[in-house]
Design a protein that fits this description.
The chain has 410 residues and is α/β, with parallel strands linked by helices. Helices cover 18% and strands 30% of the residues.
Length: 410
């Protein structure tokens, strides 16, 4: 049995560099950008009017002029006009290019217009006001979006602005989620007294969807021959296999044997933690890898996560191990988050304890309130909580007010 820290390091050292694909920019929300996005021209690309109103030559106002004849209208999207006479004005719309020979915009609220004559009704204006100067937001060639960030709605607007109709993103892994056990039936079925409905796979599907990873699911009964046959096929087709159940010491927990027989290298089995101690992790290499090998365009290995079958064990292990593995594989750096323990906790086993907590904010501080559950099989307890707080294995007493890392799921 290894520590949580050792297990995390092994998992992270097994991260893959997925290949790249180009997709329509509007479909890229939640995906990881695999290129730098630079300005294709100045932003804004012209001196831009930022208020509806009139535009004048400030020198005329400075000389005491308050009444201006309107020469024309500069609409947004229309070709640039020129103020012919410096004592006149042009009506302008927000987003329009600033007319030549004009330099100051006065909003309609500060102007009266009658029979083609505009009268300025305020005594103080500033030279150059209400104009968004060309290149103020960025110059041509400036870096607008860095590589290896998760694309959000904010980035979509920038991509559209620079004309990136297709954008390079990191490919998502091809994932199969497998449940095992004769006691499990489909969600739509009515279980017998000795049966339960499949739930863990759908929890995992949802956890992966938060990462914008599509997955397929399968259920295999406790038959070693069938398990081996199906898993052999999955190893050839998928980048990642996630299992829920059949990795502990039960008579029908065949997965560790099946993995060994199929040439899946065990990197560890059992972690000093609660819940989720029987966690199995390994990989199947398609061909020999050297230290210099770089995973890019081919599926050179399949990563196998064998999570224990209890619902909370599956849930916490996905967050603690699969999520960091994925983030490292796609090049996203994640920051640890911590909270203040809201109550005293005693935990005697020499294990890292992932305790379910409710998060509350008090005077700007994040407080983690422990919520009692009924063990790792109590799936319903997740509905009442927001995160796991990780209590380390180096002591028994954890005092209110101490700070520990948390793993959010809400």
């Amino acid at each position: 049995m290894i520590s949580v820290e050792e297990a995390k390091n092994i998992v992270l050292n097994s991260a893959q560099n997925f290949s790249v694909e180009e997709i329509p920019f509007i479909k890229s929300v939640g995906r990881v950008l695999n290129e730098e996005i630079r300005a294709d021209r100045d932003f804004p690309p012209f001196n831009r009017v930022s208020m509806d109103g009139i535009v004048i030559d400030y020198a005329s106002f400075k000389n005491g002029q308050r009444v201006f004849k309107i020469e024309g209208i500069q609409a947004a999207g229309s070709k640039q006009l020129t103020l012919v006479n410096s004592v006149n004005c042009i009506e302008v719309m927000t987003g329009a290019v600033l007319p030549n020979n004009a330099n100051t915009v006065i909003r309609y609220e500060d102007v009266s217009i009658d029979n083609g004559i505009a009268t300025i009704n305020i005594d103080a204006i500033n030279n150059g006001q209400n104009i968004h100067i060309r290149g103020k937001d960025g110059k041509k060639g400036d870096l607008l979006i860095e590589e290896n960030i998760e694309i959000s709605a904010a980035e979509i607007g920038v991509l559209a602005t620079v004309g990136k109709s297709l954008v390079k993103v990191v490919k998502q892994p091809k994932v199969m989620i497998v449940s095992t056990g004769d006691e499990l039936v489909a969600v739509e079925e009515t279980p017998l007294e000795h049966q339960i409905r499949r739930s863990n796979v759908f929890t995992l599907v949802s956890l992966l969807e938060r990462l914008n990873i599509s997955s397929e699911t399968a259920h295999i009964t406790d038959n070693k021959v069938v398990l081996k046959s199906k898993i052999e096929a999955y190893l050839q087709e998928y980048d990642v296999l996630l299992f829920s159940g059949a990795v502990s010491k039960g008579k029908y927990d065949f997965l560790p044997e099946v993995f060994e027989e199929l040439g899946v290298s065990k990197l560890f089995h059992k972690v000093a933690q609660r819940p989720g101690k029987p966690f199995w992790f390994g990989r199947k290499v398609s061909f020999s890898m050297s230290e210099q090998s770089v995973y890019k365009n081919e599926k050179e290995q399949t990563i196998v996560f064998g999570f224990p079958g209890n619902p909370i064990s599956t849930f916490v292990n996905c967050l603690v191990y699969f999520y960091p593995w994925y983030y490292k594989s796609v090049g996203i750096e994640i920051k640890e988050e911590s909270a203040i323990l809201g109550e005293d906790v005693t935990f005697k086993p020499s294990l890292d304890y992932f305790l379910q907590v409710k998060l509350v904010s008090e005077k700007g501080k994040l407080i983690a309130i422990p919520i009692s559950g009924n063990g790792s099989g109590d799936l319903a307890s997740l509905v009442k909580t927001d995160a796991f707080i990780q209590l380390p294995n180096d002591k028994i007493e954890f005092k209110k007010g101490e700070i520990f890392n948390i793993i959010r799921y809400r």
